[in-house]
Design goal:
- There is one protein chain.
- By secondary structure, the protein is an alpha+beta fold.
- The chain has three domains: 47 residues, Uridine Diphospho-n-acetylenolpyruvylglucosamine Reductase, domain 2 (2-Layer Sandwich); 112 residues, Uridine Diphospho-n-acetylenolpyruvylglucosamine Reductase, domain 3 (2-Layer Sandwich), CATH 3.30.465.10; 105 residues, CO dehydrogenase flavoprotein, C-terminal domain (Enolase-like, domain 1, 2-Layer Sandwich).
- Helix content is 31%, strand content 24%.
- The strands form four sheets. The protein has a five-stranded antiparallel beta sheet with strand order 4-5-10-6-7.
- The longest helix is centred in the last third of the chain and has 20 residues.
Length: 294
């Protein structure tokens, strides 16, 4: 028999952290509720306490700092990201990712923080934030710490998040002038399903060569990850003579896909390489990001 959990509305990060401590490991934060409702219905989560953090207004804003960094509250919805003029100007990759997330109803309820905190980071935004070099601000109310998003995912079952910590803010550094970017994903049906594989890339080029590159991959391992091997294989390479065999071999060596009811592990390994090649090719065919160019 499933017990009805206690319900608490927190009006500050400190209140939410205190409620988590009081729940002694049985508390789950709820904002949009699009993910946790599904988990409870499938008996994959049985919390003793639901802590509603949707009243915390300080976590619902998108701000551009004086140094060009973009600060997104964890309760910002996917629809806010999709529609935000500041996101389109400063982080167009995230706007592109947001428009492909599920239906309007779920975009309007689902939050950026909820997607990031899905075990393993299986939501689409994680790869874009990895490619952009995002930092996560984790808070207990009275103290904070900041970590790179790629280190947040410890394995497929746990996060680098203490029992009473809350993801409060996502901070994304400004995209470099003339940065190129692209996002690609593959799933079995449509936007209403969980995406099977996702790849995001952000890179700069100088004199026809890739100068810097960051690659985020999801669905090809237990967690979302930064593809450091593929980045190393592509850095310094001329864009018109990329050795795709070497680059994709480096990528294949750092992922560990598993066979599921939709795709075999071998097909996933092949497909993630296809998505990376498509993303870089797509980025090379588009106008570079020029937000910082006067």
């Amino acid at each position: 028999m499933t017990l009805v959990p206690d319900y608490i509305r927190a009006r500050s990060v400190a209140e939410a952290a205190e409620a988590l401590r009081a729940a002694e490991g049985g508390g789950i934060l709820v904002a949009g509720g699009t993910i946790i409702a599904s988990l409870i219905n499938q008996h994959l989560a049985e919390p003793s306490t639901l802590i509603d953090i949707s009243p915390i207004e300080t976590m619902k804003s998108i701000r551009v700092q004086a140094d060009g960094k973009v600060e997104l509250g964890a309760l910002v919805t996917h629809e806010q990201v999709r529609r935000s003029a500041e996101i389109h100007r400063h982080l167009p990759l995230m706007a592109e990712i947001a428009k492909d997330i599920s239906s309007w109803r779920l975009r309007n309820r689902g939050t950026l923080g909820g997607s990031i905190c899905t075990i393993g980071g299986q939501g689409d935004p994680a790869t874009g934030l990895i490619a952009l070099g995002a930092q996560l601000v984790l808070s207990r109310g009275h103290e904070q710490r900041t970590i790179p998003i790629e280190s947040f995912y410890k394995d497929g079952f746990s996060l680098d998040l203490s029992e009473d910590e809350i993801l409060e803010t996502v901070i994304v550094p400004p995209m470099p002038p003339n940065a190129r970017f692209a996002f690609g994903k593959e799933g079995p049906r449509n936007a209403m399903d969980w995406t099977q594989l996702t790849v995001s890339v952000v890179f700069t080029e100088t004199r026809g060569c890739i100068e810097t590159i960051r690659i985020g991959v999801n669905g090809a391992a237990a967690t979302a990850l930064r593809a450091l091997g593929a980045e190393a294989a592509l850095t310094g390479v001329a864009v018109d003579t990329i050795d795709w065999r070497s680059a994709l071999a480096a990528l294949a060596a750092e992922i560990s896909p598993e066979t599921d009811l939709v795709y075999s592990a071998d097909f996933k390994r092949h497909l993630v390489g296809v998505l990376l090649k498509r993303a870089i090719t797509k980025a090379l065919g588009t106008t570079p990001h020029q937000e910082n160019i006067v």
